[in-house]
Amino acid sequence: MADQNVPPRRPRDDRGWDGHQHPNADGYGDPHTPAPYGYDSPHPYQGGYAAQADPREQYAGQPAPAPRGPQWVGPEGLGRPAPARPAGTGLPTLDDDNEPGRKVGRRKAMVALGGTAAVVAGGAALAMTPQIRGLFGDEAAAGDATGSTVTDGTAARPSGQQPSTVRTYTEQNESYMGSRAGEALKKNAPAGGRTFSGPAAAAAATKVTVKTVLAKDPILHLARRATFGATPAVIADIKREGMDAWIRAQLDPGKLEPSKGELKLAELPTQKLSVQQLRDQRDKLNEQDAHPEREMVDATIARQIWSKRQLFEVMVDFWNDFLHVAADFDGGEVYRNSFDQDVVRKHALGSYPEMLVAANKHPALLIYLNQKDSRKDAINENLARENLELYSVGVDGGYKEPDVRQAAMLQTGRGVDDKGKYVFRPEQHYVGKVKILGFTHPNNSADPKKAEAAIDAYITYIATHPSTAKYVAQSLATRFVSDTPPKSLVDRLAKTYTTNKGMIKPVLMTLFCSSEFWAGVGQKVRRPMEYLVATYRTLGVSPEASPKHNNGDSKRTAYARGLRQIHDKMRELGQSPMGHPTPDGYPDVYVAWTSAGTMVNGWNEAGEILAGYRTTFTYTAPEKLVAKPPATAGAYVDALSLRLVGQKLSTREKNLILGVAGVAATTKVDATFNGAITAVARAILASPQHHLR
Residue ranges per domain, the chain? Predict the structure, then answer.
């Protein structure tokens, strides 16, 4: 029998948990690739379930005993392993070592450059993983003179745990950081710090002591962390407005005008439809190949690339991992866009307790976690468990198994009616005193107002619990500062969260006013989705279609088709908005994402963008990225590096990029880098300076 003092993970039923797809002509039904959990370990939800005895097995071949009180409808089925990460595509585009006259093989130069970002910590470029060595040979790794940290199978193993015990977003991150690579990262994390009167004061007073290849420029640092990628326009805005004013403006996104890319979201027709309209028009939309849950993801990608409300979009992505409801679940096509608008986006910079209360009354969450099927005589504990384990206090937050059951009993009665709207059914609500993690309530009435008030009071209680404050603080510090954030910062953020009763803006201001944030230069690596979005941003891709584009008789506009292409590429890379199939969200530490195939696939996609092959958007020709290109190769690389990553590269990195073009620093070149400008720009985008954020 499982220890009653340890909240066990229970297997889920089939609805919404298997990441099933809805095939269509765009290839969207290809196998989904969720976040990788390491090369040789199972998905964290795999295994560990055998200890959870199926009560049906006790009565196999004999009548079940008469029911006594509430019947527990335990979620059924063993956990499924995550689909294997794709092996990677596009390697032949780097396989050009045998070109006549080329002194340095382009493939080896690219790998020696980009491989330094394969496991990046502390900003000092680290060596490649064994998987990358296997693809490209040890000589590439041997060329890295910056020192090495090996990421092997231990990268996915929790420190002192089995993968099956990795259950929550934060704990999942911490388990990865217990690996050998994680231990190396911890040594280069920022130390303790203090709070200053404002972000600019904190930036000015903080000395960056960690090892990093990034320029220790606070404006660049702010732009990399508070947006999905620094652009010349963002840098200019921060310099003109000042850091304090720019952050204040970002924290008030309603006053920022929409961008062209956001205005064009009107071309995604399902995003303007209500839940009722989506239900009524389901068949018609299917005939038109219009899928609301996919268009919602497409719209999210557009906002990440083009919105001026960048900090808001970063926080939307954060909450979509923390309070995660997958885009693809049975019902997502009707309800997920409403959840995005009415729960996550409405409260992303507001109150987390209010967000959690709203989520617990939204059909998307009630369907996703089977709460709509829970009633007093057949209680389903899915949502009650995840409210504690994932969405508030965390698995180590102090709750026990009886707390889960008491919460599940209290939350009965909430469901979805035949019209797809939230409903409270008093006849299905359990009545009786409850005690959950220090929260007590008589719960002595099935009257809708009183019963719902009791549930809301409980949800608010756990959302403002000290363990939730720490959990949110740890997750925010991991997102914005370091894979191993200092305890001093986590404690400070948690205190602000508690003092302000879960309001998010004060927590973010505490973060930006803390020296630990400004000391963390180079301590975060872009995950696949973030790398791709940052590439679109830095290359200045425009949402308008290229003059060369022929949309033919497509039912969708060029803009809609282009967004879907990016969406599909993200899925291929293993990360897309709201794409994780299970409620724990994507991991937010780099050692969870080490993959040679994904890295090379990302480089090749950067090459595709530079070449402007996809005419659904307008691209800046690579020879026009620098307004007045210098006449020599070395100076041109410097200018192009400043344009794309905001700083010059090291001498070693610069020489590797010159090797990609097969020229010396003093070689005379034209605006096209003598025909090699696309390869040179792509190599810069493969550098640690672009992989880091």
Answer: 91-188+525-691
